[in-house]
Design a protein that fits this description.
single chain, alpha+beta, D-Maltodextrin-Binding Protein, domain 2, 11-stranded mixed sheet, 12 helices, 11 strands, globular
């Protein structure tokens, strides 16, 4: 998982969208993209997944260059599928979403990047505000519900990850689990709830909390977690591993990490607890893709974005990464209910947050939750 660069956090602006997720029997969620005024975008009826198109005509220049904020183990198989399907050669540079966004901005019109894949919503939003992204064709945007695409058409969602509370049922009575993430500051959870303060998903969650509750309430929650001696881990997978080993009772993570562990060991003692449908703890974070405005291979770049929304690629997300596929008609991983766009919550537009993501980092540092 990538972590956000402090420089990018200081410079992030509007156009960054996170969405609150909704739960029913298991995990159900909805998201909402917005335009500049922050009003929710009306939901359009999504089309079916994009069907593979014939390979585009060759364009002059080097192979298609992709900057990916998702890790190589998640993206490389998809790139190989794309190359086999389209006969387009692609080179991928991996790194944190924030660092790659800053690199693209520094490179300016000379950037070799044609496509940007961002794990962190802040990174994609930053490039959108800098005018570095092309508007995607309506045919691409229509592959997903409008909830999962930018209101101005500059990015489209590939997959979604929901925030959950993973717990060890040998150490935790399900009856003691809260409906709200805000209740984890209760003394009953002292020393029992692991967090990853340096992780980008945790920081996205805190920024969304600021939008919903304000800086004072968010700082109070962080301080409460610090007072509760919340154990620190570097990333989500480390938290899940610690929970399964019984090192810590529970932890705040993205949903799919436990599913991956269970795929390897179905008997591992771990369960994902979903917070109430309207709780900020059930946030859905969308992985996004975009074409760089400076790309000299826009046709090939569009072919890649389209491929990522084909049934083949979307089913990879469901079966291999255990994330929510966002293209219409593709089923989620086994055990997860489909996303329900009818239950859309308000847009999370980070431009309204004074100081943006930089302020989020300040609050995390100020709270004492980092150990």
């Amino acid at each position: 998982m990538d972590t956000s660069s402090s420089t990018l956090l200081r410079r992030a602006g509007r156009g960054i969208w996170l969405v609150a997720a909704v739960t029913a029997l298991s995990l159900v969620a909805a998201a909402c993209g917005s335009d500049d005024d922050g009003a929710p975008v009306s939901s359009r009826a999504p089309a079916s997944p994009v069907e593979p198109a014939p390979p585009p005509p060759p364009e002059p220049g080097d192979p298609l260059t992709i900057y990916s904020g998702r890790s190589e183990d998640l993206i490389s198989p998809l790139v190989e599928m794309f190359e086999e399907t389209t006969e387009i050669e692609a080179d991928v540079r991996y790194g944190s979403s924030a660092d790659l966004a800053l690199l693209i901005e520094a490179e300016g019109d000379a950037t070799p990047a044609d496509v940007f894949i961002s794990q962190s919503p802040g990174a994609m939003g930053y490039l959108a505000t800098q005018g570095r992204l092309r508007v995607l064709p309506s045919g691409v945007l229509d592959a997903v519900d409008s909830a999962y695409a930018a209101g101005d058409g500059t990015w489209v969602g590939f997959s979604g990850r929901q925030r959950v509370l993973v717990y060890n049922p040998n150490l935790v009575d399900p009856a003691d689990l809260p409906d709200s993430v805000l209740d984890l500051t209760d003394l009953a959870y002292d020393g029992r709830v692991a967090v990853a303060p340096a992780n980008s998903s945790f920081q996205d969650f805190i920024t969304a909390m600021r939008f919903e509750s304000g800086d004072d309430a968010t700082l109070s929650w962080l301080e409460g977690m610090a007072a509760n001696n919340a154990p620190n881990y570097p990333k989500n997978s480390a938290i899940v591993d610690a929970v399964l080993r019984g090192e810590v009772d529970m932890g705040l993570v993205n949903h799919y990490y436990l599913l991956r562990f269970l795929a390897e060991d179905p008997d591992a003692p771990g369960v994902n607890h979903s917070f109430a449908f309207d709780d900020i703890g059930a946030l859905l974070i969308v992985t996004t893709g975009a074409i760089l405005d400076a790309s000299d291979q826009p046709t090939a770049a569009q072919a890649f974005i389209e491929f990522m929304l084909t049934r083949q690629a979307q089913e990879f997300y469901a079966s291999e990464t255990r994330e929510y596929p966002l293209a219409a008609g593709v089923q989620p991983p086994e055990g997860l209910a489909p996303l329900n766009v009818a239950d859309v919550m308000d847009t999370i537009d980070f431009d309204v947050l004074g100081g943006g993501l930089a302020r989020t980092q300040e609050l995390i540092d100020q709270s004492g939750i980092v150990r």
